[in-house]
Design a protein that fits this description.
about 130 residues, mainly alpha
Length: about 130
């Protein structure tokens, strides 16, 4: 797992935030389309990696929660106080998991937002080219 900070750094290095869409000539518009395709490929790979990381976090915490489950024999002997302690511990673990996943989900939403913007820009550029070509 790479971590949300790594993904944020990748987004910053990508430089998609300050990208200007230049459609002053057909050549520039076509170059911009090519640049957008490259960005899109990178963002899709990044989104895939983020989703894999989220899945791995869920698996990791699932194993931790499984370890907390007592065997059927122990379950019968368990007092109400011990059951409450175990439930409280599980809730704490779930909170930790959700907090960890939340930062990844924020990064995934940012990537999705950029992909949507790329789609919108692509439509704008193609319309601009069609208008010039006729």
């Amino acid at each position: 797992m790479l971590g949300p900070k790594f993904y944020q750094q990748q987004l910053d290095e990508l430089g998609i935030d300050g990208m200007e869409i230049d459609v002053s000539t057909i050549n520039k518009a076509m170059q911009t389309l090519n640049d957008l395709e490259e960005y899109e490929d990178i963002l899709k790979k990044m989104r895939h990696n983020i989703r894999v990381d989220i899945r791995n976090i869920r698996k990791e915490y699932l194993l931790i929660l499984k370890e907390l489950n007592p065997s059927p024999e122990d379950k019968k002997k368990e007092s109400a106080r011990k059951v409450q302690k175990r439930i409280k511990k599980k809730k704490g673990i779930l909170k930790k998991r959700d907090a960890k996943i939340k930062s990844y989900e924020i990064m995934e939403n940012m990537v999705d937002n950029y992909l949507t913007q790329i789609d919108d820009a692509r439509i704008y550029i193609r319309n601009s080219i069609e208008t010039r070509v006729g």
